[in-house]
Structures are given as structure tokens and as C-alpha cells.
Design goal:
The chain contains 13 helices and 23 strands. By secondary structure, the chain is an alpha/beta fold. The strands form 5 sheets. It has a 7-stranded mixed sheet with strand order 1-2-7-8-9-10-11. Strands 17, 18, 19, 20, 21, 22 and 23 form a 7-stranded mixed sheet that branches. Strands 12-13-14-15-16 form a 5-stranded mixed sheet, with no helix packed on it.
Length: 402
């Protein structure tokens, strides 16, 4: 059984939806699945663009055989060699030894490292072109989006860009192939942000470089390797990628992230949320760092402009789940945020200063003047400090709105 869809004339989506993998890269939960997109062009020569995760090889190979019919496979363009896309490559070569493989120089190194092989190959890089007959292609290398070797392939005949991981998203597409067939804001915005910020967050400058090149290209349709194909609202996703990759807050909201051993710090975090909302700022979210997967915390941290961190002191340092969150923010190059601090400690509260030592590793982190420090459980003084912190948050949010 084949499950394929036409993208534009002569171009077909032959990908698969994965609802069987629980944890992407064995790091990031994907409760709503993910798609692995692959495409075939039927021109004077036939061209396959990338493959899929090997677990889904049988279905993908059925799709490929269905679209090709009795035609040979002339070319395989591999834009990205990560195994979620390339682990079925060797199976395709076994079935189609006639195919010539087109990829970057580094891509072919990675091909060998993963123990894949092919006899016929063409190495390309930025500025190189290729023709399959009526369709002409230009290649653009995209180092660190998301690995060092990817490239994007632009069909200059019809404006279709094969963008590899760029402009992709977590969440299976389940039959809905195009951006105008889904409610992206409702259903894909968070998975899309969580995908980009956790997978490529560290390399924002490289994404920015790609966006600059993309702005000069006549792109009409974007075909990523995950998620929907963009044919209507290209400006929307390009704007989101611009914000995420430049570490610019998407919304002027407030994230309150807390760790709490016995519930006291949690109650303080909840009270702060209430105080801020009562002052008229309603984009406020509260997160328990102990039971929220890091990828969701990172996604929210990229969304908002204000991050309030509340946790107890542990081993004279930062409560470990909070420390993990902060260290992941450092690893992903998080920057340009306003931060508020709430510390707790039963005999030597130091978590506030210790959190700042980690935060100081990031660029453009601004601390609110007001902080909260309490011992074991909140008291009347905590109420006063919370009110002052809420005032400072609201003043800062309103200042950034201007
Ligand atoms: Fe979807 Fe970098 O692989």
C-alpha cells in the first residue's frame, strides 16, 4: 500500500509519520509523533530527495516504488545525513544501484562514517547547479543547521526549496501535508518551537545566515524534512525562525520556573503568578522543573522575555533540577532575557547567587532589581518582597512593550 501526495506538478511527498518513537534522539519526548518527509521528482530524470528513519523503511520503499512505477531512480539528493532521514539510504541504493548520489563533501564523509556506501556520486556545494531536465537546481550549504554537513536544494524552475531540518517541526502531520491544511498556531507552534530551539538553539547565528541567503532566493514553497510543507504563509514561519534564532522573545510574557522539595517554594511561585496577573499581565506560565521535561522548559524560555527562577538551596548550591535547566539554557546559547530570582534555604540560602553564576555565562541577561529570599517557608516579609518583585516584573514587561 502506498501513501503519497502530490506537492506540485511532478513532485510527490513519499514520507511517513512516526507515532512509535516516544523520545526523539532519546532526549526529547514526542507525544504527538513526528514526520520524516521525503520527496520524489518525476522529471526527464527521476530524483529522490532524502529518505526516512529505517524503522519505516518498508512503507517508504512502497511509496518510492509506487511513484517511480517502472522508471529507474536516476539521482538521490541527500540534503542531510542524520539517521532520522538517511538510515534508509542504503536500502534505496540496494534497490537502485543505477542511482547517482548528490551531496556535500562533508555529507559524503558522514555517509562513510555511518557505514553507508555508493559508487556513483557528485559532490556539490554552495553555488553549484544541476539539471534533471526541465528542472534546474541550486545548492546552498547550511552548516550547523543542524549538523555541519546539510545543504538546501532550490528548484529554481518552480521555487521549491528542500530545506532539510530548517523550517521543520515535531508533531506528525497525519495526512495534512500543507501549512494551509493545519491550524499551525494552535497545533504546531509549540512543537515547532520546541523542535527548533532544542535541536538547533545553540546555532542561532547559523540559522540567521541561512535566513539572509533565503531572503535573496525566489522561494515559493518550502519542503522541510519534518512537519508541514509551507506554501501559503512562508513569511509566518520565516518570522518565527528569525525570532527563535536571534534569541528575540516571541511574546512579552512571564515564565515562572520553580523547584520545590516540600512545596514552600512552589507556593511562593504560585503567589507571584497571582500577584503579576492581578497587576494586569496575563501571559504568565508556571513550571515545575522537577517534573517538566527540559525541552518544554527551553521552548517556553525562548518564547517569553521574562524568566523568574525560584528554587531551594541544595548542597550549598542550586537545586539540581533547576541547575540542569540553567545549564541547558547556557548550552543552547540562551540570551537577551530579563530574569528574576527567588531563593529558599533552611540554614544557608545561597541558591540565588549560585543561579546567577550560571546565568552570567549567557549574553544580555538582565536582573530585576527586586529579589525574594526566604528561609524554609514564606512569611510576612516574603509577601512584601513578592509584591516588590511583581511590581518590578510588570514595570519591565510594560517597558519592553513600548
Ligand atoms: Fe531531522 Fe538533523 O535531523
Amino acid at each position: 500500500m502506498a501513501n503519497v501526495r502530490e506537492v506540485v506538478k511532478d513532485l510527490y511527498w513519499i514520507g511517513v509519520n512516526d507515532h512509535r518513537t516516544d523520545i526523539f534522539e532519546r532526549i526529547h519526548p514526542i507525544p504527538e509523533g513526528v514526520s520524516y518527509n521525503s520527496y520524489v521528482l518525476l522529471d526527464e530524470k527521476t530524483v529522490l530527495f532524502d529518505t526516512v528513519d529505517f524503522e519505516f523503511a518498508p512503507y517508504f520503499l512502497d511509496n518510492l516504488a509506487y511513484v517511480l512505477g517502472d522508471r529507474p531512480l536516476d539521482y538521490i539528493i541527500i540534503n542531510h545525513w542524520e539517521p532520522d532521514h538517511a538510515s534508509t539510504f542504503q536500502e534505496v541504493i540496494l534497490r537502485h544501484p543505477e542511482a547517482t548520489v548528490i551531496s556535500t563533501e562533508k555529507g559524503f564523509y558522514f555517509m562513510s562514517q555511518f557505514n553507508y556506501h555508493c559508487d556513483k556520486r557528485i559532490t556539490v556545494g554552495t553555488g553549484d547547479t544541476f539539471s534533471s531536465g526541465k528542472h534546474n537546481f541550486a545548492f546552498v550549504q547550511m552548516p550547523m543547521v543542524h549538523w555541519p554537513e546539510p545543504m538546501a536544494t532550490l528548484d529554481t524552475t518552480n521555487g521549491v526549496l528542500f530545506s532539510a531540518d530548517a523550517f521543520g517541526s515535531f508533531k506528525a502531520i497525519d495526512g495534512k501535508l500543507f501549512d494551509d491544511e493545519v491550524n499551525w498556531d494552535r497545533d504546531f507552534l509549540e512543537p515547532g518551537r520546541r523542535y527548533l530551539t532544542n535541536i538547533v538553539g545553540k546555532y542561532g547565528a547559523y540559522v540567521q545566515a541561512v535566513l539572509k541567503v533565503a531572503a535573496t532566493l525566489p522561494i515559493k514553497i518550502i519542503c522541510p524534512l519534518h512537519g508541514v510543507i509551507w506554501r501559503k504563509n512562508l513569511g509566518y514561519i520565516i518570522d518565527k525562525y528569525d525570532k527563535w534564532s536571534s534569541y528575540t522573545p516571541e511574546d512579552n510574557g512571564v515564565m515562572i520556573a520553580y523547584g520545590s522539595m516540600y512545596g514552600n517554594t512552589e507556593q511562593v511561585a504560585q503567589k507571584l503568578a497571582s500577584e503579576v496577573v492581578q497587576r494586569g499581565i496575563t501571559d504568565v506560565t508556571v513550571w515545575d522543573v522537577s517534573n517538566t521535561h527540559m525541552s518544554y522548559l527551553i521552548s517556553e524560555a525562548f518564547r517569553v522575555g521574562h524568566i523568574i527562577l525560584a528554587c531551594p538551596t541544595y548542597n550549598l548550591g542550586v537545586y539540581p533540577p533547576m541547575k540542569n535547566f540553567l545549564n541547558d539554557m547556557v548550552a543552547l546559547n540562551m540570551q537577551k532575557r530579563t530574569v528574576g530570582i527567588i531563593e529558599n534555604g533552611t540554614w544557608a540560602p545561597t541558591s540565588g547567587e549560585e543561579m546567577k553564576k550560571i546565568l552570567d555565562q549567557m549574553f544580555e541577561i538582565y536582573y530585576l532589581d527586586s529579589e525574594v529570599s526566604f528561609m524554609s517557608s514564606p512569611d510576612e516579609n516574603t509577601d512584601k518582597e513578592l509584591a516588590a518583585l511583581a511590581d518590578a516584573i510588570v514595570a519591565s514587561v510594560k517597558k519592553q512593550e513600548k
